From TrEMBL:
This is Glycosyl hydrolases family 43. Belongs to the glycosyl hydrolase 43 family. The keyword Zinc does not apply. Gene3D superfamilies: Glycosyl hydrolase domain, family 43. GO terms for molecular function: hydrolase activity, hydrolyzing O-glycosyl compounds. PANTHER family: ENDO-1,4-BETA-XYLANASE (PTHR43772), PUTATIVE (AFU_ORTHOLOGUE AFUA_2G04480)-RELATED (PTHR43772:SF2). The lineage of its organism: Bacteria, Bacillati, Bacillota, Clostridia, Lachnospirales. GO terms for biological process: xylan catabolic process.
Length: 498
């Protein structure tokens, strides 16, 4: 029987910044598109995958739906960063005319120029057909709407009224130091391409989450943008302090409540805020997911269960069940991000408890304790000192997911590296075999939780993939952990359960 893992798309695909949208009987995943082992964010054009709402184990590639070259702004040159040719996180909504409108921003290399261009729109007759450039968000006068920081758009059709959410912020708190204030403003002027006058005239500041209502033409704003959520500089003394807005605006309406999903100043987590109104009165709700399981059961940042980095996604109801879509980081880089998903549960009061990262995600049940599994579906990967990855590639020598040709595997496993998979349904005696290579030697401890060994697999030096196995007795639904104890470093490509 077919299963689905995390990440749930083919392992060569890197589609972060997910917006899951149900249109008809299929769920479509819209996102940006990283290159495997890429040099910057979002190097590739938009592709879309979809699945029938009743079968999330079978994802279909719909093809390339939009290319950066279709947007006339893609030929604009940003000083020191080249053309504005990278498509960043999109969102899609159906208009009153039945067509589908895709909202997005362009950026140059490494995010430069991403805050100074407009939010643009492409349109298509079907959710995953070939979109065509439609125009840019503008005022009734025809002037481009560039107020605040036009970045990471999210959009909602609220019974025929359309609201656009957007914004960005530096993840840093307030300061009373005059010199630091001066430096902050100079940095912001440089990053945001704003003049000192533009910065001064925004009494709420340019950073934060914003909302604006659109006309039915899906391009023209009805009102001036309104500040929705504070950034870290403005969050002190509020419920948002410590989880202030950073980026990744997304909006859902559930019953009579609006859920605003966003990435916080901590960077690794997706949080939510709620209101009875689409454009005001939002209250902090909590963390939905962290791509290092930070905060879950009180876990501290230094004890993260994987290298963390930026996070972006949303929630969606699919065939009566709610899921959160988010992304993880591979290649010890912020440029090769893969989408994952977990089922979430709403409490009676409408709150969403934080969920853990798993390997079984959309599968609907634990994985079978039978068959061959790729090592890169690990939901936990740590040596106890995993970093938070900023922009670019981390130079730290840590275990991570990588690729070589068409092979994808975990590399750089040193002593005490722990690799965890959640969850499997074990039925008793099971032969566990692993394929490793590398100059390292020692053993792989097998356990249902870190530190609780139930068996050992020998690890020998080899330049080729070699297999070792053992048989253990496990009954019930459990995690499966491999912990390397030894000298040197090894790679792990797969394991089998029989």
């Amino acid at each position: 029987m077919k299963q689905v893992f995390n990440p749930y798309l083919p392992l060569h695909e890197y589609i972060p910044d997910r917006e899951p949208r149900v249109f008809g009987d299929r769920v479509y995943v819209f996102g940006s598109h990283d290159r495997e082992g890429g040099k910057t964010y979002c190097e590739l054009d938009y592709v879309v995958y979809s699945a029938h709402v009743k079968n999330l184990k079978d994802w279909r590639l719909e093809g390339t739906v939009y290319r950066a070259s279709q947007d006339p702004h893609s030929k604009e040159v940003v000083k020191g960063a080249g053309e504005r040719k990278y498509l960043y996180a999109p969102d899609v909504v159906q208009g009153v005319d039945g067509r589908y409108y895709m909202y997005y921003c362009l950026s140059a290399f490494a995010g430069k120029g991403g805050f100074s261009g407009p939010i643009s729109v492409a349109v298509c007759d079907t959710p995953a057909g070939r979109y065509e450039y439609y125009g840019d968000i503008k005022y009734p006068s025809g002037n481009l709407m560039l107020r605040f920081l036009p970045f990471d758009p999210g959009v909602i059709n609220d019974n025929g009224r359309f609201y656009l959410y957007y914004g960005w912020a530096l993840p840093m708190g307030p300061t009373k130091n005059p010199l630091l204030k001066y430096i902050y403003h100079r940095v912001m002027e440089y990053m945001f391409h704003k003049t000192p006058e533009e910065m001064r005239t925004e009494h709420v500041g340019v950073m934060g989450s914003n909302v604006v209502e659109l006309e039915e033409d899906m391009l023209t704003v009805k009102t001036e943008p309104i500040r929705l959520l504070p950034c870290e500089m403005e969050a002190k003394g509020t419920k948002f302090e410590g989880h202030a807005f950073f980026e990744a605006s997304s909006i859902r309406k559930i019953g009579n409540t609006y859920y605003f999903i966003y990435s916080t100043s901590k960077n690794h987590e997706l949080c939510y805020a709620t209101s009875k109104y689409p454009d005001r009165g939002f209250h902090y709700g909590g963390v939905i997911v962290s791509n290092g399981d930070i905060g879950l059961h009180g876990r501290r940042a230094k004890d993260r269960l994987a290298a963390t980095g930026n996070n972006h996604g949303s929630i969606e109801c699919i065939d009566g069940e709610w899921y959160v879509f988010y992304h993880r980081h591979t290649h010890m880089s912020s440029n090769s991000r893969q989408g994952c998903a977990e089922r979430i549960k709403f409490q009676e009061d409408g709150s969403i408890p934080q969920v853990e990262m798993t390997s079984c995600g959309l599968n609907g049940a634990p994985l079978h304790a039978k068959g061959k599994y790729p090592a890169v579906i690990a939901c936990n990967l740590t040596n106890g000192h995993m970093p938070h990855i900023g922009n670019g590639v981390s130079k730290r020598k840590r275990p991570h997911i990588t690729h070589q040709g068409k092979e994808r595997f975990i590399t750089n496993m040193g002593n005490k590296t722990v690799i965890g998979f959640k969850y499997f349904d074990f039925k008793g005696d099971v032969e566990i075999s692993v394929k490793t290579r590398g100059k390292g030697y020692g053993k792989l401890m097998v356990s249902r939780m870190p530190g609780e060994g139930i068996g050992e697999l020998p690890v020998k030096p080899s330049s080729d993939w070699i297999e070792s196995s053992l048989t253990v007795d496990i009954i019930g639904i459990h995690s499966l952990y491999f912990t390397f104890m030894g000298k040197g470093r090894i790679d792990l490509i797969s394991f089998c359960l029989n």
